[in-house]
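re the bet — no i am not wrong, look at it urself. input seq straight from the record:
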Amino acid sequence: MMFFWIILSIIVGSLATKYGRSGFGFFVLSLLLSPLVGGLILLIAGRTIENELEREVIKERMRESAYQKVNTEDMLNKATEQQKRRNAKDWTKS
């Protein structure tokens, strides 16, 4: 039983770190009270503002990267098509 208590407390601590909170603090809180109480307090406290802003920046960078990748692929496809047309014209002229 104690083994599960410690494992669940570690999980709460790692989730707290992902939420931008003190992982060690929530780990200790979960050990002293219970993992359920520690998890509920974490959910009530929510993410920090810095953590939310960081996540938004990452999402925006991912969107920009995906957009640039699509544009690059479109440009390569157009260039390939143009090269094929040129080659076909050169072949018919010969």
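see?? The CA atoms of residues 68 and 74 lie 10 Å apart. told u. also DSSP finds four helices and no strands in the chain. so pay up
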